[in-house]
Write a structure and sequence with these properties.
Blueprint: E1 19-24, H1 25-30, H2 36-44, E2 51-56, H3 61-69, E3 73-78, E4 84-89
Amino acid sequence: LRPASDSTAVPAWVTAGRVTHTIDADAMLETGVHPLGKVRECAASLKNGELVCLNSSFRPEPLLDAMARGGFSVCCVPNQSGAHVTYISRGTSA
C-alpha cells in the first residue's frame, strides 16, 4: 500500500485499542538515534491488526515509504498541534 496522504481522515483499521507500541521520533532524534530501526523492530513483532504509533513533529516521508515498501499498511495524519501521528500495521481489517 502507498502511504496515506496528509488528511484528517483516519482509516477504519486505525483504532487506539490496537496500538501495541508508541514511539516518539523527536525524542529519539534528539539522542542521535533514527527511529526507523525501532519502528521496524516493533512492526516485525506485530500480529495482524496490531499497530505501531509514531509521534513526530514532521511528516516522516522516508519512513512511510520504507514501511509501505516492506508490505505494511501506513497512515500519517496531522494532529491538532500540527505534529504528525503515523500508524503502521502488518494487516488491516479494511
